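We modelled the chain as a single entity of 349 amino acids. Its sequence is:
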Amino acid sequence: MSVLRTGSIPGAVAALLLALTACDGGSAGSGSADAITIGSPGSSSDAGFYLADHRGYFRAVGLKVEYKQVSGGSDLIPLLSTGRLDVGGLSLNSGLINAVRSGNHLQLVADKGSFTDGSTPSYGAMLIRPSDASVIKGPADLRGRTIAVGSAGSSLDVAISGYLAQGGLTTKDVKITTLGQNQRVIALEQKAVDAAFVFEPFLSQALGRNAGVVLADGGAMARDLQVAGVVFGGPFVEEHPEQAQDFLSAYLCGVQDYNAAVRDGKDADAVLGIIADATGESVESLRRGIPIGLRSDGALNADDVQQTIDRLAANGLVTGPLSVDELINTRYAQNAQSCDEIRAKAKTS
């Protein structure tokens, strides 16, 4: 079976969307293993998908993949739940948790975004205006100020709450407003907000044009925070468990290639070129950016996930308690095939 590269570059996404609109029958979750559908916003955090696809790792394990462009988690959850999509990347948020509590059999199966331990920069950070750097020096200085984030009810709530607590504050002592990624930087520049939590690629772009300076790195705010994960739809894992295992094995090989490139420089030009083609970002922008925190073994921080669930429940954003074991499934990552074997097959397939 050959990998379908439909949607691997932005120009091809529209054609794929038309095909999916005409017929959802290509989805593994809808009963056919002909093609596994991946919901993707076309961001660099999907690097593992793109590399596994382009380098033939999915093909090596006998899979075809297709991409469907989605704007965010609110689109992904119903599509994954009903089998119209098989795989997606989701931030750890109240929407995902409430969906699982409601009986949707979504499974968080692998890491797809984590902060560092604070010893190196994370791919997300709290920014303030350069002109305020002498006034806002720490969390206590944020009292009464407005902080822009992407959405309420996510793992980032844990990071911000923990950071504010270092200054003796709670979220009641600040104003939290939600804005899109690029809008956060613009709002900061226009003095509509006092601080903004921003992820790559907007983080390095903002720093590059001096639109903001880092008040606190994500890893320093919440060490090893589990920000996002690979999520399998219930119909996919129930109807095609072997393909689900093979998919994650190939995906992790792509993640390993990404980390080898951005951390050690191995084959960096080729790796960044593949991601640039898939996302529309320039190679230079990717090279300047802080690497996405993707764990090569796909391991999930279960304790951190449970802490996020509990905090969101305490804040009334989750409809009730949920055990982390009802949300995550680590066996796919633990049983992943050897990437040496998959790469060898990719060279001959």
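As a brief sanity check on the tokenised model: The mean pLDDT is 89. Residues 261 and 333 are 21 Å apart (CA to CA).
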